[in-house]
Q: What sequence folds into this?
């Protein structure tokens, strides 16, 4: 039985007919063609599918598209500025070699951004605990932790710059 | 440094932009017009006869296009998945090599063995319909463990493999080892299990098959580490498609760790089905399917003995190993517990006599093949655990027994008693660099501090050496390889001076688009932005053997150097012509070609333009164009080596082991991009630590996989591991390849498991523990402590 779902994805309002069982990740990947969000497991463990729903990180393999009806969804494709400038967290992952194969990266970056919004200056231990829902098989986490630390600092700089400008 | 993005520079990766913005292109991301989706029907039994398949209901389900079975493949004369390496037993007989069909024919041999494929308009429809396929099974007795497989009454996995034995092989001089033991003052012994692992690249396997009826061309897009190898194996042996009609593309691939080397049945199924139904067919594994059907790793049961003189000098090593190969031979499975394992049993030590026996057996479990390190972690773990036991037997400090037995740097090149010749290495130096990194001198004070707060502290060492850069084709061929193991590269200068490099190596996280471009930027003095690295497509790249065994830079990079040599030779001819000088008078430096003793010269960009605008070339002597190709076949293996030190703290109340410090000192020869190299080490270490403390693949006696998801198979997570201290030195470059590189992809995994377990056993020494099999889970550690302290347990 198809239902209609409307949500804002990366700033654009979309309305589509979906089967009710359609997962949010399937909707993003298959219906909208936003293949940056990945599926790495089927038990909500790996976090490759993390997106932001109304600003909070959500494992999109564990939510139905219909549950995001009326919500604002941001995927990895929507994180950088419109002019292509990387988000400070994306830039920090690049600078600190926080990615290798790139498959877990979109979920990892989205989780890291949410983590830092909650805790603007996390310790190494807080970063490690905050990312325990995201599995990376390549990096051994060492450089991810460094990247999130640097990304947090850069985000704080961006925020204070915004405040100063206001 | 002449070029800021040249050799030795920590260049930020060029591939990251697309991955960080969600614009990578992984196999499951591809959509084709009119594409269908495949879902496999898989055996729920470890061993059964397939008495019948009733697909009527599935065929009538919404969206279903076809349901295909092994009988359909047989009717189309689809062949068996080939094995790429043949081992001969002690008695000279060839290994048993049973058929391995993409869809089972009459009998299934492990849980997950594919029985049928359902193809539908959507993935959900295919999945729904797969549940409607009725398969009638007659369950047979199954055998899941190697130790059970060799018992007389065990079920037979293959009727033509008596005793479930694939081969019974040996290496080394048995008589010399027996003589060494006869004169030994001390003997150390150990029984150990190298636990079975699931590689778990984060991108599940996927394959997309296409057939163009107008041209008769097939295209397979697949999650592969070596697309040319897949083209050869699938084209020539399984589907009978000649290379010129079959294109294999391995686009962005989300990790491999060995598990994506092999030719899997699903690749053949989608390619064959695409022609059969006249539409593209895509299959993507879910993680549960990956656990069931990806080739697993390790799974050795071993006994080992070291003979020593009275001063703890090693005299002889005797090893006996039982290796589980699973239900069928995966592509390179037979080589892993033999030539990639037993040949490394000398380790870093000058043990004069070594004898190893390996019996490899079939079981009703998923096939077992190469997983990061592939045989070498098993060898390192065995040696380094045994050396710790030997230190106890001989009454020596664990660092001292290693120093006493290291092959000295001045003995290089060193011929081991197990077939390899190490070219370079300074093992004592690795250890001396490592000890201060973990403040070894302060360890006893830290141990006392831990004890004061009720904790147990241990320190462990592991030295490793691996044979990488696989391999000289003539050596591999003599040892049973059915393939050559060279690499190919093409360097194409374009008229405006930019360069495209085509490499047969494949990057699935290793960063070739950066490292290989650094080599070109350095050699020709051009900006790195002007260099494009193309990999992973048989339609673009002349040939390739792919990426595994830490071979990309040592073999693929060497092929690139050879192709650049050819470009330079051609460019020199063009320069001589343009500058009206003799070729022998042309000097080349950083991409600038000058006439010796003059200020006349040309840049490589000017030469490239002339090569494509040859208005006044003497065409009988000088061809237009600047595009050269080379194949490089190594002269020897490369021998990365190093020393890992791990310090753990155990909470005796919970059994939880925390890795509190880890230092890795590695000799990778020359390093091109230190940022990438260190990243490879970090990732490898966590896979090794994962095996030691967390990961374990468990089948029950009936062959059901008990650890089939991330809920049950414990992957290391960010809060399970520490940050690392990583060092490398470059003063022992490889002597036989043009870059002096040795390879760094597997090192971390090879050394780490042994270092961790040596630390765990050290921490538990007070409880009388001399060995513990991996993984050292909290439960296992807690039980050992409780068994040793009954008074505490009673409380």
A:
């Amino acid at each position: 039985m198809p239902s209609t779902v409307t949500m804002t994805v990366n700033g654009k309002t979309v309305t589509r007919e979906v089967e009710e069982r359609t997962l949010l990740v399937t909707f993003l990947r298959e219906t909208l063609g936003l293949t940056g969000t990945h599926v790495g497991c089927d038990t909500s463990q790996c976090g490759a599918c993390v997106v932001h729903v109304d600003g909070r990180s959500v494992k999109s393999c564990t939510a139905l598209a219909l549950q995001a009806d009326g919500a604002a969804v941001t995927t990895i494709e929507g994180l950088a500025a419109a002019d292509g400038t990387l988000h400070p967290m994306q830039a920090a992952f690049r600078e600190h070699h926080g990615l290798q194969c790139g498959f877990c990266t979109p979920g990892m970056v989205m989780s890291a951004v949410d983590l830092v919004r909650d805790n603007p200056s996390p310790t190494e231990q807080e970063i490690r605990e905050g990312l325990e829902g995201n599995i990376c098989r390549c990096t051994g986490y060492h450089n991810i932790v460094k990247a999130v630390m640097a990304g947090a600092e850069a985000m704080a700089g961006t925020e204070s710059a915004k405040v100063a400008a206001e | 440094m002449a070029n800021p993005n040249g050799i030795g520079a920590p260049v930020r990766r060029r591939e990251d932009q697309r991955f960080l913005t969600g614009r990578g292109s992984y196999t499951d991301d591809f959509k084709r017009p009119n594409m269908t989706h495949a879902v496999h029907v898989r055996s729920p039994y470890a061993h059964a006869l397939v008495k019948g398949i009733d697909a009527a209901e599935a065929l009538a389900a919404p969206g279903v296009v076809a349901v295909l079975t092994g009988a359909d493949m047989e009717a189309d004369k689809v062949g068996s998945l080939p094995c790429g390496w043949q081992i001969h037993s002690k008695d000279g007989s060839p290994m048993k090599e049973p058929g391995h069909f993409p869809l089972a024919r009459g009998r299934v041999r492990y849980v997950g063995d594919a029985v049928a494929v359902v193809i539908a308009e959507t993935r959900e429809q295919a999945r729904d319909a797969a549940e409607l396929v009725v398969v009638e099974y007659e369950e047979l007795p199954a055998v899941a463990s190697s130790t059970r497989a060799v018992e007389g009454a065990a079920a037979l996995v293959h009727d033509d493999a008596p005793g479930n034995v694939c081969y019974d092989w040996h290496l080394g001089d048995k008589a010399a080892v027996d003589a060494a033991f006869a004169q030994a003052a001390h003997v150390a012994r150990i029984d150990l299990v190298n636990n079975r692992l699931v590689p778990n690249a984060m991108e599940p396997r996927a394959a997309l098959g296409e057939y163009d009826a107008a041209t008769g061309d097939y295209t397979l897009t697949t999650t592969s580490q070596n697309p040319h190898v897949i083209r050869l194996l699938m084209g020539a042996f399984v589907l009978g498609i000649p290379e010129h009609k079959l294109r294999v593309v391995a686009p962005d691939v989300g990790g491999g760790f060995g598990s994506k080397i092999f030719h899997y049945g699903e690749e053949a199924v989608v390619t064959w089905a695409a022609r059969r139904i006249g539409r593209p067919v895509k299959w993507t594994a879910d993680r549960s399917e990956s656990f069931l059907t990806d080739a697993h790793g390790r799974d050795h049961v071993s006994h080992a003995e070291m003979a020593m003189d009275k001063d703890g000098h090693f005299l002889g090593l005797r090893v006996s190993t039982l290796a589980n190969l699973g239900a069928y031979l995966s592509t390179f499975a037979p080589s892993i517990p033999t030539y990639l394992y037993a040949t490394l049993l000398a380790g870093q030590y000058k043990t004069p006599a070594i004898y190893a026996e390996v019996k490899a057996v079939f079981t009703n479990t998923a096939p077992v093949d190469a997983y990061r390190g592939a045989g070498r972690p098993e060898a390192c773990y065995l040696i380094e655990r045994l050396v710790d036991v030997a230190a106890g037997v001989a009454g020596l400090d664990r660092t001292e027994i290693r120093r006493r037995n290291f092959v000295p740097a001045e003995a290089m090149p060193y011929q081991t008693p197990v077939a390899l010749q190490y070219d370079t290495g300074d093992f004592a130096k690795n250890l001396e660099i490592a000890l201060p990194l973990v403040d070894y001198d302060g360890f006893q004070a830290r141990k006392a501090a831990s004890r004061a707060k009720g904790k147990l502290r241990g320190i462990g060492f592991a030295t490793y050496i691996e044979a990488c850069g696989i391999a000289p084709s003539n050596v591999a061929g003599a040892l049973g390889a059915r393939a050559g193991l060279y690499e190919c590269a093409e360097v194409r200068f374009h008229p405006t001076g930019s360069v495209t490099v085509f490499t047969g190596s494949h990057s699935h996280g290793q960063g070739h688009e950066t490292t290989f471009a650094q080599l070109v930027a350095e050699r020709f003095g051009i900006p790195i932005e002007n260099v494009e690295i193309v990999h992973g497509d048989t339609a673009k790249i002349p040939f390739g053997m792919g990426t595994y065994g830490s071979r990309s830079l040592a073999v693929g990079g060497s092929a690139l150097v050879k192709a650049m040599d050819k470009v330079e030779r051609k460019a020199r001819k063009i320069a001589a012509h343009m500058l009206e000088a003799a070729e022998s008078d042309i000097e080349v430096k950083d991409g600038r070609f000058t006439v010796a003793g003059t200020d006349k010269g040309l840049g490589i960009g000017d030469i490239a333009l002339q090569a494509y605008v040859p208005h006044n070339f003497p065409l009988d002597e000088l061809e237009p164009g600047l595009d050269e190709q080379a194949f490089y076949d190594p002269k020897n293996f490369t021998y990365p080596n190093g020393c890992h030190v791990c310090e753990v703290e155990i909470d005796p109340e919970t059994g939880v082991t925390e890795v509190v410090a880890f230092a890795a000192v590695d000799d990778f020869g020359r390093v091109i991009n230190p940022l990438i190299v260190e990243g490879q080490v970090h990732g490898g270490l966590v896979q090794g630590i994962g095996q030691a403390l967390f990961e374990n693949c468990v089948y029950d006696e009936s062959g059901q996989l008990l650890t089939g998801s991330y809920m049950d198979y414990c992957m290391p997570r960010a809060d399970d591991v520490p940050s690392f201290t990583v060092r490398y030195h470059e003063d022992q470059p490889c002597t036989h390849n043009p870059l002096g590189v040795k390879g760094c992809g597997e090192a971390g995994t090879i050394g780490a498991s042994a270092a961790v377990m040596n630390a765990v056993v050290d921490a538990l020494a007070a409880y009388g523990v001399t060995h513990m099999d991996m993984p050292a889970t909290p439960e296992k550690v807690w039980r050992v402590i409780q068994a040793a302290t009954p008074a505490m347990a009673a409380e």
Summary: The CA atoms of residues 50 and 137 of chain B lie 5 Å apart. The longest strand of chain B covers residues 314-326. Chain B touches chain A through 56 residues (CB under 8 Å).
